[in-house]
Hints:
By secondary structure, this protein is of the alpha+beta class. The strands form eight sheets. The chain has a seven-stranded mixed beta sheet. The protein has a five-stranded antiparallel beta sheet with strand order 1-5-6-8-7, covered by helices on one side. The protein is globular and about 70 Å long.
Amino acid sequence: MIRHRIAAFAGVLAATTTVVACGGGDTVGGGQAGPPQPGGTLRYGLSQAPSCSDPAQAGSNQTIYVTRQIVDSLTDQDPATGAITPWLARSWEVSPDAKVFTFTLSDGVTFSDGTPLTAESVRDTFDAVVRLGGAKAPLGVSYLANYVGTTVVDKLTARVEFSAPNAQFLQASSTSQLGILAPSTNAKPAEARCAGDNIGSGPFTYAEYKQDVSVTLAKRAGYHWGSEVFAHEGEAYLDRIEFTVVPESGVRTGSLASGQLDAISDALPQDAPQIEAVGGRVLSTSNPGLVFGFHPNVTRGPLRDPAVRQALLPALDRRQLIDTVLSPQFKPATSVLAASTPAYTDLSARLGYDPAKAKTILDQAGWLPGADGIRVKGGERLSFGVTFSQVFAGNQAILELVQQQLRQVGVDLRLDLVSFSEQTARQNSKDYDAVYGNSTRADGDILRTSFALTGRNLSVRGPVPALDTALEQQLATNDPAARAALIATAQREILDNGLYVPTIELSQAIGAAAHTKDLKFEASARLQFFDTWLSGHGDD
């Protein structure tokens, strides 16, 4: 058996989280503010409405910023080292074949409705995620691949079993999608779990939930079982967090600068001077996981042709995307995975900007320029649509520039902006030529979630033996080096088969007022408010 103090398991090699900010000091806003002050209400401006209040069904960053606060996980992941550390589980054992995970829970933990945390809570939570299904809880279901069930060994011991090796599961147990929920929440059907009355054991609880408008969280009195990653013990410092949906970037920034908000999502480059002028800072960290890019539907239109998909790789000037639309804390994609992801492999040589190469590939494949410059083959125009949402505020501007770049090599890209819920529905039905997005996780297994035939398979592909074998075998090894080699093979196979067209690595850019202190990113680049506090309690 492998104990958590012996191995950092789950293929974690390193998970780097960096903070890039203007001004001095280690706290948000800079300067010495003395010891943390409990109390106050933090007012946060989201760039997009949360899609659902249920941690198990949360997918977007803006949603997870909210749901992460109300639920604890069995484990946590250290953002500095990538190591898996205790949270609700004080210890665990993993079988050598990575099929059985036995967790010993901390005693004395309760959900916010007063019911105790037990091994039954773990069983019921995982069973409920499986019942939700891949359409509602795609991430959680993928983490529980080949789930057999959870055995209640005793009150505080839960044995989770899988029918096939599942080496990624320990890291998955640190995610909010597998956060442990109370019986009253687990018993509800999917839609009812989005109403804002979910019961977790986290440091905050739902006080008010108005879909598409606002969410208010209240501090959980008596909370004392925080993660080992947290900087302090006991209750959270903040009394309340008020999330307001403010889609317009300029309005968010203006509200922060004028003191109406204490922190905001998606601070764009042009926002930084206004934030810094009032003593605020922009905090940034790179998201691990699948970089932003195109999933081509290989069964539709000209994207059926592998040559077209290969030509798209050198047709994109990724550095121009950063320099024109974004800011220095963002990076061009150099692989399918972000550089901060465990088992990342540098494939930048395959992603260099070379429009002449793109044109040659298309010429040789018989796609020749038409009268309007757009290439044609057999009467079919080299034209396809991309479905996307504003889950990241820079998406439209990035894709408009990509559109221009592709036109230069004779490709017509049509932009199809939809809501996040509509994009999810189209992904589930595979109703798109290509879909644009990313997927954050501090584990290379995110490739299986997105590309496996048994996963979301967003490229709608058939069998690719080398890729299928790599994705399957990485689940079967506890050896980080061997697992990393398999994930590296998967990255190469995805590019070689034209199953993904990477663009940029996503970074979280959070604007924070001078009085907002210790606003932190967890290992998957989502915000954790447990240690956050307000100097002078802001203006609440």
